Amino acid sequence: MEIRITTSHMLKVLHVIAWIIFVGLCIDAGGFLSNAVYVSTINPAYAKHFWLNNDFSVLYAFDKGHFLVQTMLISIVAIMKAIMFYMIVKLLYDKKLNLARPFNKEVRHFISLLSYLSLGIGLFAYAGANYADWLMRQGVTMPDIESLKLGGADVWLFMGIILLVIAQIFKKGIEIQTENELTV
Q1: Count of beta carbons in the 10 Å neighbourhood of residue 60
Q2: pTM reported for the whole predicted model
């Protein structure tokens, strides 16, 4: 008995996986953002038990402004990741990925937006990690970069550049495909 996995089966599986990741990223982004608002407006003592048990009490006691900047950088990265997976879910749901004609403007636009989001995630993660490092040099006890979800900025930047190159390849593919259609 041979099991054949077709492209449409693989896209359905990827769609489900993208949904799961999207929901998790939305929960993560909402957790960071709502905890930052809660700590800064209602209960500053909750900074000790911040989202995912990160302890921001020393940072909050050091300076409320630094607390807000650090949590906003973390939230921006989390929100941009959620937007990225929303775009993937939407592309697969709207069935705009036409495998018979893969070089189309919607897919090129999608890849371009993903590249810009990846670059943005990389830049904000880099800024957040450097800011946390600077705060630690000031004597503030901070959670590690991985628990803040700011690690891997270089990987996000690398992925953004790769996606920009792929977007340009798609642009050329669209030009060639349009040329061939006009020739026939």
Answers
A1: 23
A2: 0.89
Rounded CA gap, 59 and 36, in Å?
Answer: 12
Q: Which of 117, 143, 158 is nearest to 47 (CA)?
A: 143
* Chain centroid, CA 145 distance in Å: 16
pLDDT tens-digit readout, 154-184: 999 999 999 999 999 988 888 888 887 766 5
pLDDT in tens, 67-106: 999 999 999 999 999 999 999 999 988 877 777 777 788 8
Any long-range contacts for 63-70 (C-beta under 8 Å, 24+ apart)? 64/40, 66/135, 66/140, 67/36, 67/39, 67/40, 68/36, 68/40, 69/131, 70/128, 70/131, 70/132, 70/135
CA-wise closest residue to 143 among 30, 40, 67, 83: 67
Measured CA to CA, the distance from residue 41 to residue 55 in angstroms comes to 17
**Region label for 36, one of left (φ > 0), alpha (ψ between -120 and 50) or beta (otherwise):** alpha
